[in-house]
Amino acid sequence: MTDLEDITGINDAINFSASNTGRILKIHAHPKTVGTGFTAGELQDTSIDAFWTIPNAEARVQNLEMQSDLGAAQTFVESLRMAFWTVGRGLDMSVFRDKIGQVTNFALRVLAHRALTKNGDKRVLYGAALMTINQHLLEMAGFDGFITSIKWPDALPMDAKEVVFEQQFERTAGLVSKQTLAEERGRSWLVEQQRMEDEAQAGMNLGQFLVEQFDRGGSVDGDENDE
């Protein structure tokens, strides 16, 4: 089913209410001028900035304006919009208004809990189909007996500082290995381990070279002292 399967009626109600509000503003937003105590024939236009003159001293001219800013209608549309996201298990971005940069990883997951759950349901359904398709493709290519697995990325952006801090805490507490932490960060443990060993060896070679140069009484660039 589509994401709008359960909220089509709410979506129609939002569009209907917003359309009515827009029509009211279009028709009644501009004030209407009303005159009493005279007839239209008694109104004289002087053609100076559209200034009017009326012979009758008792005549009154005033503007008829809207008595409301349609606050109730706007509140109703907002309520429908909130119901749209709640029933549809979506992520309402207005929740994060003026909060970007202040929401922690944990708070973000709490606010997006319903959307994450819905996304998880979709991944379960789509994942089974993708695994089956991949298996058949491998069979067609001559690789029988292989079963693929899907590694889904995190659906939410994460603050790297918070992630590193959490990993450091787990490592200090002895809960995980360095290899697990590297894999969680999307790095190859074997590659990183080899690179760290190469860097350490290069550092040792440089240190040994400097010591040998100083022992020989030579400069770092290999030139001998004049003394």
Task: Compose a concise summary of this entry.
The chain is mainly alpha-helical.
Q: Tags for this entry?
A:
single chain; 227 residues; mainly alpha; two-stranded antiparallel ribbon; two-stranded antiparallel sheet; 4 strands
What do you see in this structure?
By secondary structure, this protein is mainly alpha-helical. It folds into 3 domains: 8-89; 90-155, no CATH class; 159-222, no CATH class. Helix content is 53%, strand content 6%. It has 7 helices and 4 strands, in the order αββββαααααα. It has helices at residues 8-28, 71-87, 105-111, 113-140, 160-172, 178-184, 189-215, and strands spanning 32-36, 44-45, 52-53, 60-64. The strands form 2 sheets. Strands 1-4 form a two-stranded antiparallel sheet. Strands 2-3 form a two-stranded antiparallel ribbon. The chain starts with 7 loop residues before the first helix and ends in a 12-residue tail after the last helix. The mean pLDDT is 80.
The largest pleated sheet is described as:
2 strands, antiparallel
Instruction: Indicate the proportion of strand residues.
Output: 5-15%
Strand order of the largest sheet: 1-4
Q: How many strand segments?
A: 4
Topology as a string of helices (H) and strands (E):
HEEEEHHHHHH
Unreliable sequence segments: none
* Helicity level: 40-55%
Number of alpha- plus pi-helical segments:
7
